[in-house]
Structures are given as structure tokens and as C-alpha cells.
Amino acid sequence: MNKGDVQLKEFTNAKILALFLALILVIASGCSSSSSNEETGNTGSSSDDSGSNEETFTITLAHSGPSEGTGIQEALLKLKNEIEEKSDGRIKFELYPNGQLGGEREVLEGVQNGNITATFTTTGVAGNFVPEMEIFDIPFVLESKEQARHAIREGGPVLEKLGPKFEEKGLKLLGFGDEGFRVLSTKDLPVKSVEDLKGLKVRTQESSNHIDAWNALETNPTPIPFPELYTALQQGTVDAQETPFEIIAMSKLYEVQKYAIDMKMVYQYFPIMMNLEFYQSLPDDLKAIVDDCFSEALQNAIAFTDERDEEYVKTLEDNGVEVSEITGEGLKPFREKAQPIVLKNVREKIGDELVDLYLEEASSK
């Protein structure tokens, strides 16, 4: 091979090598761009001239209540459709009722640490996380729904003071609903006086104030998560419990209880709470949709329950439950035994200001 042939061969090899290296650079650049898009979540098509995508969010709401028939569950089913429609699919809503993801306390812990997006609980359980909620544990304060709703009305002083307290605990308070007064139901004893309560095994919420109140009434209180309540009543672990008429009817507790006594001990408010970090991560337009839809859902839940109050009582009576009520002066012995100890506990824990404000608002209606 002469010198010219050698030079031509070297030139050709160099050219092939250069083209090969250029091809590798192009491929590497494409992979890098694809990887960057995956890491930033930009896997969809762009929604505007800037090339950025509208992020989607999933709200997972879990609770311990029945999976059908209650005001709040029916309202949440409607909420799912509305919030997904109004957000044009940017918010997905997943609903897990009936304790599927745990009891009230367990689920609220999940919301606080971000594993679950949102929940509603009884105020007794919420008080374990936000001590100021314990104002609602004070027994025999309220005598009517009108009083109860006035005390916690939207825009009122009590609600305005509670909102920041939730945020301190990593929770966003979206509002309050209610299911009326908690009703004592028993297996064998038609309670008519405070003396009838002595020695009664009562299932209570997981709340020290509720336990103290029932201890003061000389019962044997036992905290049991709601999903385990029916079995506990059936097996005789406890022989009494207290939940609103709606819950007794829809959870079929009438199958293992014979008497229901409306003694207006504690009102069943339920706060709906969301993980604060998740809420703050939402764009402003989605925050507005969340606020509006949840507020409407709570009002729908209250209206649903109110419309069916008599129906729930009739369901109990049709299934052999004797329904009675203790009112007025008849409640005085109960109040004198149970209220002072809880009132003292709550004042010591959170101070007088919010307690006095709540009592004032409750009595002003």
C-alpha cells in the first residue's frame, strides 16, 4: 500500500469515528431531556405556550363512619363528582369509609403526617391532636341544635380562633358539620335517672374528657374504636354506647341494643381536616375550589341529617328499640356530676379565654 492510500484510509476512519461520536452525543442529549421531564413530573402534553403542564392532585379522604346512608357520606359522594368536575380533572378524589384505613385516631395521625390527605372525626378524638377542641367535650352545655350551630357558625369568633390552632398541628380546618346530640343506647337498662348509670359498661370515644365524664357518672367507660363497636356490643365487652340517632340507625346498632336515651350530654360536631402541607401546595384556584366544595358538602350533610331525624328514630322503634328523652330539670343531677370535672380539666389545659367564649356563644342563642 502506497503513502496516498494510507492517508486516504486514515482520513476515512477519522471521519467515521467523528460521525459515530456525534451520533452518541445526540442520543445522550435525548435521554437526558427525557430523564429531566420524568424527574420533574412533566410527562403530559403542555397546556400553554410556556410548555409547562397543569399538575394534578389526589385527595384521599378516609373516615370511620358507615359507607352509606349518613348525611356526611352522601355529601362526600356528591363532593367527589363536583370537585373533580369543577377542577377539570386536576383534582382526583378517593373516598375510604367504614374504617378501611383505620380508626379515627389512626386516620387522623395519617392526615397529620401526610399519608392520608383528609378526614373528619368526632371532636373527642380531634382533641387529642388540637387541645382547644376539648371545649366541645364539656358535657351538658347545649340543649338544642340552634344553640350548637350558633356557637360554631362560620365567621363566628369560636371558629376564627380554632383555625390557627389546627395549622399549628399541621392540619387545615375546612369546616364543621354535625349529626345532632349523641344518644346513649343500652342493651338491658332504660336509663331514667343518674342512679341507673351506676356500673354500666359504656363504650366511649378515645378521649380522656369523655372517660372522666362517664367515670363521674359512676359507669365503667371503655374506649373502643368505632369499627369495633358492633362486635364489642354483640359480645358483651360493653353493654352501652353513645352516638347520634343517625349512626345507631345506619350502623344497625339496634340489632344489639334495646333502649335509646336522648340525654343531650355531648353534641356531635365533626371537623373536616386536611393535611396543611398538601393544602398549601395547591394553586390558588384549586384552593378556592376545595374551600367551596367542602363548605357546600358540610351544609349538605347537615341538611340531609335534619331531613331524616324522624326517620332514624322510626327505624330504631321499628326494630324494637324503646326511645326516650331526658330534658330540663331531669338533666340537672347528670350535669352536676359530670360537668365540673371536665370543665376544670379543659380550663387547666387551654386556659379560660376560649372556654368562656364558647360557653358565652352557646348560651346567647
From TrEMBL:
Keywords: Signal, Transport. The keyword Mitochondrion does not apply. Residues 32-54 are annotated as: Disordered. InterPro entries: DctP_fam (IPR018389), TRAP_DctP (IPR004682), TRAP_DctP_sf (IPR038404). GO terms for cellular component: outer membrane-bounded periplasmic space. Coiled coil: none annotated. Transmembrane segments: none annotated. CDD domains: PBP2_TRAP_Siap_TeaA_like. One of its GO terms (biological process) is transmembrane transport. PROSITE patterns: PROKAR_LIPOPROTEIN. Belongs to the bacterial solute-binding protein 7 family. This is C4-dicarboxylate ABC transporter substrate-binding protein. It comes from Pueribacillus theae.
